[in-house]
Write a structure and sequence with these properties.
Shape: elongated
Number of helices: 25
Oligomer: single chain
Radius of gyration: 29 Å
Bound molecules: zinc ion
CATH class of the largest domain: Alpha Beta
Structural class: alpha/beta
Mean pLDDT: 92
Strand order of the largest sheet: 3-2-1-4-7-6-5
Largest sheet: 7 strands, mixed
Number of strands: 22
CATH architecture of the largest domain: 3-Layer(aba) Sandwich
Low-confidence stretches: none
CATH topology of the largest domain: Rossmann fold
Length: 701
């Protein structure tokens, strides 16, 4: 590990954050250097501070401490991520014998300069009690490998000599702040404090010194681990990465279905989204015979427990290639049931007299040798956080074993952390949206209607899979949709709905990335304008191929995944006003849509036993969705206008005037109808909902 300090960059930060003052600007700079390295901190872990002088509203200059606020990640922190607090009153708290967690939060909040600022880190008092100006706190992997050991002091001494002082494990809060401050007073010349089974603190009077002490000490720990443990990476080969990837697409929906529990959303399912990891490195670590035992031995640092629980679900002896889906499901079901039971027993063992309710007993991380590891969460982002932590955990446990024996915190300490009210605040308590925990696939997502549907599904809380053959259009759609879902919540795939293989691979990829699909919107379509007598066979076939076979192939694969998940789901077909109200010179289109519509009704009958609803939307004349013009109308508009004796520019107005409400229909209008039908509150299947402003000739009948 090397220092990434650059004078030039530091000056750039000073200039950029001149308003915040030099010290806070440099604080932001080195906090970001630390945050960018996932072997130092991950996902909201770690915290930094700086002590500065600040003027009060009365003009008095006093000492203040700016400490990382909750909700900020070090890798993207800005000056407002370091709320300023009056330092002296915080220091005075050291005189207390005890301070409850809730009162500690209250005491820190009272000292904020800005009453609207986020809560300062739960380790704020620890920063306040230390005298140095800059303080950096990390949960560095290499430090955790040294300290999650039966005799960590010996290893820490062997690695660092007297360069650090050792703080025994104490749960974060007032007590740890006091113990750490006392330790530092006994050893004022050390470069850092090693907190056993927790992490590292370094400090200095300038930003660079404190940062580089972190880097130096972690570098030393890494070298020590390499010297003692040997540089050999993992002993056994992990198996075939291609086979693992194939198996992940098969396993995803089965696992996701089994992890869904009853209750929650209106359709009765509380789902999870998965994030799969199957690199060669991960497969090799999972294949190590010691892995199962190591998996039982607890997390690296206490704040991981909130994301991963104390232990993952380990699924041994899994020959995915040679057993059927049913056999996979049976094995997984038994393993998940055992996990739930063990979690409930763990809760009972540790809850004591406390009046708290158990969290759900579901695993957050599933390890499957030969296939990879799966993180679970409400969104792909949450699942990816669990998976990131799980990947580091596998690596660090293996490294710890090479220099000794990996040993995590005691179960009771882990339980305290898992049910610590201040940690739970990190998880947020927002009300879930109607399609939260659902994955939705939209075909033809680059077009005006497709993008409108995707945006509305995203706004309703779904994770999105956007497919199309227009890759440029997909990129533009992703930009708009990912602004709602976040980067990880939106997957784009080139998928040709007329190709069996392309559709199968598309669904496989959705299963690999999210663990499955719950809402499928067959929407890709083309049109052709010509009178029956003049229509060429090839043109007719082409329209049928995309519109009818496209729906067929999409629904067939959807049915496969939905059956595998066994948690219901919804298909919403973007049909057409033409099904009930056909027009001249539009035979191929009208016939293909009518056939697709009928196929939807058959699917409604066939999939009802699985709890899958299939409904149709008959939209009319969607010319655009915001900036996205309808490719279909651009292609056929001039011909359609000619058929109706209009100039091309008059067409949109013609359609607006002919509906009862006199409204223009947008892609978002169609999207809202999709959300309504896909939404879990609608107990109907085989139904048709027109979205056309009211066209009497096309009333469903
Ligand atoms: Zn910490």
């Amino acid at each position: 590990m090397k220092s990434l300090w650059s004078d030039e960059e530091s000056r750039r930060f000073e200039a950029h954050h001149a308003d915040a003052g030099r010290e806070l600007a440099l604080r932001v700079y080195t906090a970001r250097l630390i945050g960018a390295d996932t072997t130092l901190v991950m996902h909201g872990g770690g915290n930094c501070s700086v002590k500065i002088r600040r003027r009060t509203i009365l003009g008095d200059e006093i000492e203040a401490i700016c400490v990382k606020g909750s909700g900020w990640d070090l890798d993207s922190i800005e000056p407002p991520g370091f709320p300023a607090l009056e330092l002296e009153p915080l220091r005075a708290l050291r005189r207390l014998d005890r301070l409850s967690d809730e009162e500690m939060v209250n005491q820190t909040r009272r000292r904020l300069f800005d009453s609207q600022a986020p809560n300062p880190s739960v380790e704020a008092l620890l920063h306040a009690f230390m005298p140095q100006r800059f303080i950096d706190h990390t949960h560095a992997d290499a430090i955790l490998a040294l300290t999650n050991q039966p005799d960590p002091e010996a290893l820490v001494r062997a690695a660092f000599g007297d360069r650090v002082a050792i703080v025994p494990y104490v749960m974060p809060g007032f007590e740890l702040a006091r113990v750490a401050a006392e330790c530092l007073e006994r050893h004022p010349d050390v470069e850092g404090l090693v907190l056993l089974k927790h992490g590292l603190f370094t400090f200095g009077d300038d930003a660079r010194t404190s940062y580089e002490r972190t880097i130096d000490l972690v570098d030393r720990a890494e070298r020590f681990l390499a010297e003692r443990g040997g540089n050999r990476s993992v002993p056994s080969p992990g198996g075939d990465a291609v086979a693992a990837s194939r198996a992940s697409a098969r396993l995803g929906p089965i696992l996701r279905g089994l992890l869904a529990t009853r209750g929650g959303a209106a359709d009765g399912w509380r789902r999870v989204v998965l994030d799969w990891r199957g690199s060669a490195d991960v497969l090799a670590l999972l294949a190590d015979p010691a892995c199962e035992d190591l998996a039982r031995r607890g997390p690296l640092t206490p704040d991981h427990v909130i994301r991963t629980k104390a232990t993952p679900l380990f699924m041994p002896g899994f020959e995915a290639e040679s057993i059927s889906d049913e056999q996979i499901a049976t094995k997984l079901e038994a393993a998940i049931a055992a996990y739930r039971e063990a979690y409930q027993a763990y809760f009972k063992r540790n809850v004591g007299e406390r009046a708290i309710e158990s969290h759900d007993p579901e695993p957050r991380v599933i390890l499957v040798p030969g296939v990879g590891l799966f993180g679970t969460g409400r969104t792909r982002k949450d699942a990816a956080i669990a998976a990131d932590i799980a990947e580091h955990t596998l690596r660090i446990k293996a490294a710890a074993e090479r220099v000794g024996r990996y040993e995590a915190l005691a179960e009771a300490d882990l339980f305290d952390m898992e049910y610590w009210s201040l940690e739970l605040a990190k998880l947020g308590r927002e009300v879930e949206k109607p399609l939260a925990r659902c994955v939705a696939m939209v075909t033809g997502a680059a077009g005006a209607i497709g993008v409108g549907i995707a945006l509305e599904l995203a706004q309703a809380g779904a994770q999105l899979v956007l497919t199309d053959v227009d890759e440029g259009g997909l990129d533009r759609a992703r930009e708009r949709v990912a602004a709602v879902t976040g980067r990880l919540g939106c997957l784009t795939l080139r998928m040709d709905v007329t190709s069996e293989e392309s559709v199968r691979l598309g669904f496989d990829e959705a299963c690999r990335v999210f663990g499955g699909v719950d809402v499928v919107v067959p929407n890709a379509g083309i049109a052709h304008v010509s009178a029956l007598a003049d229509t060429e066979d090839a043109a007719f076939r082409r329209v049928l191929d995309v519109n009818l076979r496209g729906y067929f192939l999409t629904m067939r694969e959807a049915a496969r995944v939905l059956r595998s998940q066994a948690t219901g789901g919804s298909i919403v077909i973007n049909s057409s006003k033409n099904v009930f109200g056909p027009g001249a010179d539009f035979g191929a289109y009208s016939a293909s849509k009518a056939a697709g519509h009928q196929l939807g009704k058959v699917a409604a009958i066939e999939l009802a036993p699985l709890g899958v609803r299939v409904n149709m939307i008959n939209a009319d004349a969607v010319f655009a969705e915001g900036e996205t013009a309808s490719g279909l109308w651009q292609a056929i508009g001039p011909d359609r206008a000619r058929s109706k004796g209009l100039a091309p520019g008059e067409l949109e107005e013609h359609y607006r005037q002919r509906n009862l409400l006199g409204v223009r229909i947008s892609g978002r209008d169609v999207g809202r109808a999709v959300v309504f039908l896909a939404g879990t509150a609608v107990r109907t299947t085989g139904a048709t909902l027109p979205v056309d402003g009211g066209v009497v000739a096309a009333f469903p009948r």
